[in-house]
Amino acid sequence: MNVNLEITQNALNIPINDFFNMAARINKKRGFLFVSKILGKHLPVNPYTPLLASGLLASTYYERVTGHSVNGLSEIRDGFLSDRNEDIQKAYELLQRNSLALQEAPIVIGFAETATALGHGVFDCFPQGYYIHTTRENVGDLVPEFNFKEEHSHAVDQRCYANRSILEKSNPILLVDDEITTGKTCLNMIRELHAKYPREQYAVLSLLDWRSEEHLEHYQALEEELGITIRVESLLKGTIAFEGKPLERPINDFHSASDSTVETFIHRINLSSAFHSLPENGYLSYSGRFGINEADKAVIEESCQQASELLHKEQLGGKTLCLGTGEFMYIPMKIASYLDGDISYHSTTRSPIQPVKLQDYAITEGFTFQNPEDHAIQHYVYNIPRGQYDEVFVFFEKHVSDESVMEIATLLSEREIKTVHIVTCS
After folding, report:
1. How far apart are CA 380 and CA 390, in angstroms?
2. Which helix (H) or strand (E) holds 411?
3. Residue 332 belongs to a domain with what CATH number?
4. How far is residue 256's CA from residue 405's CA, in Å, rounded to a whole number?
5. What's the CA gap between 356 and 363, in Å, rounded?
6. How high is the pLDDT of residue 156?
7. How do residues 1-37 score in pLDDT, each as one tens digit?
8. Among 146, 60, 62, 53, which Cα is nearest to 104's?
């Protein structure tokens, strides 16, 4: 397979190699994946890096919409690109001092599963607004406010448990995704939203925008059909041309038997004292799945700081991996950002990507396991080399049994990680 790129716009002049690397998806609908180096999903990153990526995206949108400059944006960008933890933290502190006040408070919607934290981070940058992320979860007896299709995905059906009173407001809606290739998912969602909650303005914010001229025409056609404006902003824009045949099944195993002799200690930690959960189904109230507003930000911040203090007491030192699970990305990422030491962060995923040990190929190794929160769903995690970490904190939004976590705990122990902390938040 070959993917040929032509870059047409780079809003902040970020080197292209700092954005992503390429890998093959195991998906007959779309055979390639831009594996982000800044998102904290498939590849380990400094936990501040994805938060800064959200900030750069929000800042770019703010400058284009208002015509005002963001204070210190070049310094934030430089810190974002730095390899030094001190520079990255300073850049995030500078970002937090900015108040990107828009004329109207936005309704920010992040796409599951990859952009749940990206969207939350964008929402953080605006002093007023509302945030919700879509989900593939069926949440108890709750009825989604609306549904839509992500047609290229391995898991097509998306749901949104938004508050109807918020969507009935005329405020602009900002859809946030890590990448748009055809942009069809966003159009599906806008059409669904507009049928129930019409308004004049929509925006799409994405790290990468690969829409062709034909795809751009589809956006213009929907604008004319519905009498709306759709603004699209990205950090990197261009076009792609794909050649080859997508993989429909793996070409090798995701993991094999290990000859590791490292004895692994499995330790359970519960953070429910730091968080509020919805008692009828065990999900967190402030994850973003059920909607949050500006008043909730301080509660989330305080909860993540309290959680980090609890985990700090359990840290053993050395190299630490914090691993989010599925859509549950933002809260583990924020907790990780408050921990001391050599900290890396990324997440498990539903996305099957083909691992290949090749130079300049994004995914060199990976393994798969049953999701402890729902055994009907298979999860994957990538690029955890043997002997890379001394300990790992695996974060689950809901309570999980000892038996259900044994598979992932055993797989992590095969990576010669000496201590596996199973962290539940409700």
Report:
1. 21
2. helix 402-413
3. 3.40.50
4. 19
5. 6
6. 55
7. 888 999 999 999 999 999 999 999 888 878 889 999 9
8. 62
